[in-house]
Structure prediction request, 354 residues.
Amino acid sequence: MKSRIGIDIFSGAGGLSLGAEMAGITVRYGVEINKYAAASFAYNHKNATVLTGDITQIKTSELKLNEDVFVIMGGPPCQGFSMSNTMSRNMDNEKNFLYLEFVRFVRELQPKWFVLENVWGLTKMNDGQILETIQENFIALGYNVKAKILWANEYGVPQKRYRCFIIGNRDGINFEFPQSRGTHVTVEEAFADLPPLVNGQMLVEADYTIEYDNASEYAKLMRRNSQKAMQNFVTLNNELVIQRYHHIPQGGNWRDIPDYLMTNYADKSRCHSGIYKRLKADAPSVVISNYRKSMLIHPTQDRGLSVREAARLQSFPDDFIFQGPHMSIQQQIGNAVPPLLSKAVFDQILSYYE
Prediction:
C-alpha cells in the first residue's frame, strides 16, 4: 500500500508525529526552531529529515517530496493563545500569527488533511473570533474544518490535559472526533514499575521494579522496546524545598505547607494553586507544563518528578530518548502533544480509508 506521508511543523520533540506514526502515518519531515527539540525529533524519528530554523525563512520547496502529502500537522507556538499567560494574551503578540505559516504550508503543499493542535485558550480569545478566523483560513483553501477541545485522559493518557484540535480535509469527509475510551489511567499505573529515586538523582538507566508480566497494561505499553527505565533524572532542590514537600499530602499543594517554611514569600496567599502540587496516585495527573517550575511532587516520595515519570504522564514510551540539557528536556516534555492522544486522532482519520 502507498505510504501516507506526514509533515510535522512546529514539531517540538515530536509527540504529535509519534502518535501519527503509531497510527500508520509515515512522517518524512519535521520543522522546529529549537535546536534541542529538533535533536530529540531527529533521534526518535529515524526516517524523517529535520529542518532546524525559523519557519518564516523555510520554503516548502526545500522539502524534497516524490509523492503527495497526506497530512500536515503541528502546533504553532501557544504563548499568545494561552489562558494562563495574561501578559501575552492579546493580538499584539506576534507569536499569535505564526499559525499563518501553518496556513502557508497547507496552501502550498495541498495535503489531504491537516491537524493543527493548540492550547484550549485559543477558543476563548476575542470571544471565539480568533478560532473562527483560523478556521475560515482553511475553509477558503477548500477544506472541511472541525474544531474541538480534547481531554488527553479520555484517550489513555494518565494526565488531565486538554488541548484544542482544528482538523480539516479536502476529501469531502465529515470528520467526527474520536470517542472517549471511558476508562482513565492513574499515576500509580504509570509509575509503579519505575525505580525509586531521591532528590537530585541522575540515573541514565535503571532496572524496572516489576516484571513485565506483572506490570500494568499502561506500563507494558510504555515499555514496548525497552529493557531498562531510561533518563531517570530528578532536579536537585534545596533542603528547604524538600522540607516543604514533606508536609504536602496527595492532592495537596502549597496551602499545606506550614507558614514558618514559607517566610521567604512576601504573601503566601498569592501563590498559584498549581505550585507545590503532590500528585494523587489513584487518579490521572494534573496538567504538566514545565513541571520543574511548578514543582510537581511524586505521590509517595519527597522529590520532584523524574524525566521518565513526566514522559510517562505524557505517554511517551520508554524508548523515546530526549536530547539536550536537563532543563530543556523538561520543557520539551511539558510542551509536547501526548502521543496517545495524537494516535487517537490519527486512528480516527485513517478509519475513513479502511
Notes: The chain has two domains: 5-179+337-351, 187-335. Strands lie at 5-9, 26-32, 49-52, 69-74, 113-119, 144-151, 162-169, 202-206, 229-233. Residues 5-179+337-351 form a domain with the Rossmann fold fold (CATH 3.40.50.150).
